[in-house]
Each structure stands twice: as structure tokens, then as C-alpha cells.
Design goal:
Layout (H helix, E strand, L loop, with lengths): L13 E7 L7 E7 L13 E6 L8 E3 L2 E9 L10 E7 L4 E7 L6 E7 L8 E9 L5 E5 L7 E5 L7 E4 L1 E8 L6 E7 L4 E8 L5 E9 L25 H30 L21 E3 L8 E6 L4 E7 L17 E4 L7 E6 L22 E6 L4 E13 L5 H5 L5 E13 L4 E12 L1
Parallel strand pairs: 1-7, 9-15, 16-17, 19-20, 21-24
Antiparallel strand pairs: 1-4, 2-3, 2-5, 5-6, 7-8, 9-12, 10-11, 10-13, 13-14, 15-16, 18-19, 18-22, 20-21, 22-23, 23-25, 24-25
């Protein structure tokens, strides 16, 4: 069965996307159909998974059931019964992400099936792979300071190996083996997985296009989240109105102690309030003939999260990690915390909040009542609202918290809403489980 077109973590099934890397090949449509298990002939090319794909484009990942498929490529706009210009069988194992690259010249077009590594890079690094798609040069070299070269004499139509490189601003050197290489600024996000496409520029020379394949937090939190005091242990969730009244009474009661307890905790953790508008990165231009396309967009901070189905409506504050690397929710019981990618940008944006204190309910008390299909709305500083849909709700024992599943890089914009749940261990003064709500951008 074909997926919806929204990417999930690769361990949910298999991921597939298409890359158009042939400079003189016109725009294409790509169809995909499951191969019959009995070996019967395939008489339907299946639905299109990419349309109007042009040189230099990468389609979105498709979330697919593992199995064998027939992939067919035809000129964009032609009917589904048009004989394909190219067709191939592709096998998608469980838990794998793959890219089918349409490479070479139009007269000698060939597909290359690439295995993508979307796992979390090591702290402080990004993982990159160079795709040589510039017909104007037979080979390309790309080097970055402090790292093994992602590309050395990489032939046209081929892909380099996945390479770990230091994250952050740097200067890349791009050349073709003759003459001095061009130097250009490059800024790779920590925790990101990126494709570096070397393309022919329409005005001559080369273009280096950076495509974020997947993104994750710059630092992966260690283990579960402590977000409860046990004040509601053993109680069931109530109606949204009752829950809000209870939480409001708790917050009013807690104001007396907030100056004494909460504020020192916030200061110690370095937690800061999200600014009204994050400053955009400085404008960057690369020297000709090499240019950098798709510069990172300015970050737009999230300000508020709403889950209407259960009455959650809370402000957001940026949060961080403690000395042991654990994610720490805000000290303010009425506020949820934001960590990692910006909601609406690629990667799993994490929103964490307390389920309760020692006295009663807190901001995410009713998170356990959320159901698949519920909307989650995040308002950002630019006035936009990003809408997500819950895909599943899980409860994990803190002793078996799935760090890679919760915090691992994702190709699309996703959310992870986290609080405590399960039984309360009064000796340890902690809930035994975490509740995690998974959601994807609509």
C-alpha cells in the first residue's frame, strides 16, 4: 500500500524519494506500483509519487510499506498509460530510506538506487553526501576544514559516501581538479543530514545546492523526561473544563512558592523565554562561478501550543538539558517547553511539560487523553500557525525510553509532546513512565 506522502521515521516502514539529476532531461512524472507477489504481469503503473520533477529537484520522501515495487518515469504531463522512458524494480526493506537518482545525460539516462542514512549524527556534527550532477565537469572535489573530504574526483552521475563533518559555519572548497577551487561559505546544522548537490548553473559554472534530508536536535537528550510531582497520581483525567479549573487553582496556590523555588531552578538551568522574533542569519553570497542556493530561512520562534480536543492551551518557552544531559521542562507549571528544531521546520520539535506537581494538575495533565487524528496547533512569532495531526500516542517505561525513536532526525516537520504517566513511585518521587504524543505537519 502506498503512503500518504508525509515521511515518517524509517523504522515505521520504508522511505523513498526521487532525485532528478540529469541536466538535459526534461521534467518528469514518476509512478510507483507494488509488484504482485505471484509474479503476475503488472498492467497498472500505479499512482504518481512525484510530478513535474525538474533538474536539481528532490521529491519528498514517501512513507511506504516494505516490499518490491515497479517504478516508471515518463515525461511530465503525459498520461499514465504513456510508455515509460525508464522503468525499474526497487526493493524497499523494512526500516530503510532510499533515493532513486535519475542521472547522466538524457541520451543515456540511468537510475541509481542510493541508501540514505537518516540516523542521528554524532554530537556537534552533520552528515553529508555529495551528488555529482554537473555535466560541465567530469569530476568534482569538495573539501571541508576539519573533516574527511566528502568528494574526491567524484565522477558525474555518482554519489559520494556519507561523511561526518563539523556542524556550524565553515568554508567549503569546490573544484573540478583543474585550477584553483572556489571557496564558499557553508553552514550545516548540528544533528542534520544533508545532500550537497553539485549542479550546472544556468549562467555557467557550478551551483552547490544544500538539501536538508532530515534534521534532529543539535544535542540529543539523555533518556526520559522528569515532568511530574505525583499530586494527581491515581486520578483519572476529567473534562477539559474541570481540568483547567483544577490546574488554575494549582497555579494560583503555587504562586506563593514560585519566587522561592521556581525562579532559581530556571536560572540554574539557563532556561530563557523565547524572544518575540529571532534574528535572521546574516546574508551570505558565494563568489562566482559557484553560488549557494537555498540559504537557511530565518528561524521563527514558536510562542504557543494548543490541543483543542483536550483543552491544552499554553505558552512555550525554550528549554535545555541539565548537567546529565536530560531534558528539563519549564519550572512554570502553566508553560510548556520547546527543544530542538522549530515546529514547522524539518525534524522532531519537542514540546515538554509537567503532568502535575505535588499539589495537582499541570499544563500537560490531559496529554494522555489525546488520540490519533487530533489536531495540534503551534503559533509562531511571525503570526503563522502550523497545524499538526497526531499519528499515535505511546507510553514508555522510563527504564526503556526509546531515545532514537523520539529524538532521531526526521525528513518532515514533526512534533513530540512529552510528559509523565503511569504509576507514581513514591520512594523515587517520580512517575515510572513517559507519555509521548507523535504528530506530523499537515
Amino acid at each position: 500500500m502506498l503512503g500518504t506522502g508525509r515521511a515518517a521515521a524509517a523504522d515505521d516502514g520504508a522511505l523513498l524519494r526521487i532525485a532528478h539529476l540529469s541536466p538535459d532531461t526534461p521534467a518528469v512524472d514518476v509512478a510507483l506500483a507494488p509488484l504482485p507477489g505471484d509474479g503476475a504481469p503488472l498492467d497498472d503503473p500505479g499512482p504518481d509519487i512525484a510530478t513535474g520533477l525538474q533538474y536539481g529537484d528532490l521529491s519528498q520522501y514517501r512513507d511506504l510499506a516494505p516490499g518490491s515495487y515497479a517504478l516508471s518515469v515518463r515525461r511530465a504531463g503525459s498520461g499514465p498509460r504513456t510508455p515509460p522512458a525508464l522503468s525499474l524494480r526497487i526493493d524497499l526493506p523494512h526500516g530503510n530510506a532510499r533515493t532513486v537518482a535519475l542521472s547522466g545525460s538524457f541520451a543515456d539516462l540511468f537510475p541509481t538506487v542510493l541508501t540514505d542514512d537518516l540516523s542521528a549524527p554524532a554530537p556537534g556534527t552533520a552528515r553529508v553526501r555529495v551528488l555529482a550532477a554537473a555535466a560541465g565537469t567530469p569530476t568534482v572535489d569538495l573539501t571541508l576544514p576539519g573533516a574527511r573530504a566528502p568528494a574526491r574526483a567524484l565522477p558525474f552521475g555518482e554519489a559520494g559516501p556519507w561523511t561526518a563533518v563539523p556542524a556550524g559555519p565553515s568554508t567549503a572548497r569546490l573544484g573540478n581538479g583543474s585550477g584553483a577551487p572556489a571557496e564558499l561559505p557553508l553552514d550545516l546544522g548540528a544533528g542534520s543530514v544533508d545532500s550537497l548537490l553539485v549542479l550546472d548553473d544556468p549562467d555557467g559554472g557550478l551551483t552547490l545546492r544544500v538539501v536538508v534530508d532530515a534534521a534532529g536536535p543539535s544535542a540529543v537528550p539523555a533518556g526520559p523526561v522528569a515532568a511530574g510531582g505525583g499530586g494527581t497520581a491515581g486520578t483519572r483525567s476529567r473534562s477539559p473544563a474541570a481540568a483547567l479549573i483544577g490546574a488554575g487553582a494549582l497555579l494560583l496556590a503555587g504562586l506563593r512558592g514560585r519566587r522561592r523555588v521556581v525562579l532559581p531552578l530556571v536560572a540554574a538551568l539557563g532556561v530563557v523565554t523565547v524572544p518575540a522574533q529571532a534574528a535572521p542569519p546574516p546574508a551570505r553570497q558565494a563568489p562566482p562561478p559557484v553560488v549557494v542556493a537555498e540559504a537557511p530561512r530565518p528561524v521563527t520562534a514558536p510562542l504557543r501550543v494548543r490541543v483543542p480536543s483536550v483543552g491544552i492551551d499554553a505558552t512555550l518557552a525554550r528549554i535545555g538539558l541539565d548537567g546529565d544531559g536530560a531534558l528539563v521542562p519549564p519550572g512554570d507549571l502553566a508553560t510548556a517547553g520547546w527543544f530542538g528544531p522549530v515546529p514547522g521546520e524539518p525534524g522532531p520539535a519537542v514540546l515538554a511539560g509537567h503532568v502535575d506537581s505535588t499539589e495537582g494538575p499541570a499544563v500537560f495533565f490531559r496529554l494522555r487523553d489525546v488520540r490519533a487524528g487530533d489536531p495540534v496547533l503551534v503559533t509562531r512569532a511571525d503570526g503563522s500557525t502550523v497545524r499538526f495531526t497526531v499519528t499515535r500516542v505511546a507510553r514508555y517505561a522510563k527504564t526503556a525510553f526509546p531515545t532514537a525513536e523520539v529524538y532521531g532526525p526526521t525528513p518532515d516537520a514533526e512534533l513530540r509532546l512529552i510528559t509523565c504517566g503511569g504509576d507514581f513511585d513514591r520512594a523515587a518521587r517520580s512517575y515510572r513512565d513517559n507519555v509521548v504524543v507523535y504528530a506530523r505537519e499537515d
